[in-house]
Amino acid sequence: MCIFDHFKYLFLEPRIWIPILFTVYPSFIYIFIYMVLPDCVIYKLISLALSFLVFVLPAGVISPVLFTLSSGIVIAKRSLAFITFIIWSAIILFGYKKFRWGKVRLYDLPTYYFIYSQIWFYISCLLFIKIFIARIRKKEIKLEDWKT
Question: How many CB atoms lie within 10 A of CB 84?
Fold first, then answer.
């Protein structure tokens, strides 16, 4: 409800809500890329990366890489999830160290990224749609056990 009440301000200030979005829902990056990016684009990105690898690595190393990537788009998209997880984890660990937020346990990061944040993202989307439909129909939204 807060998003709908302050939508104009949020839309005009993306530098405020985009970092929060990626911190609270880190798997949003992976989900968005997985749903929006067509398979042909991923194949082209893979072939571009492999064309650079041909000049750097010997053929004995490139052959297993080509075999692995030719097994399908599933492996490429899963590796994309792993790469985004590594980048997000590095940012979180840097933030914990720089701002001294406390101790972070390394086994919490994959649990949060791959399980909790995806579940919470889907629940939040469903509630966002529910509130959006209620606002269109001009229905009152009642919050039970809400402390004010």
Answer: 21
Nearest to 64 by CA among 77, 53, 79, 52: 53
Provide the 3-class DSSP secondary structure of residue 100: coil
1 located within any domain = no
Report yes or no on whether pTM surpasses 0.90: no
* Residues 128-147: tens digit of each pLDDT: 888 888 888 888 777 677 66
Number of structural domains in the chain = 1
- Asked, for residue 145, whether it belongs to a domain, the answer is no
- Nearest one of 31, 56, 59, 17 to 125, comparing CA atoms: 31
Domain residues for 59?
28-136
Q: Residues 83, 49: contact at Cβ < 8 Å?
A: no
Any domain includes 141: no
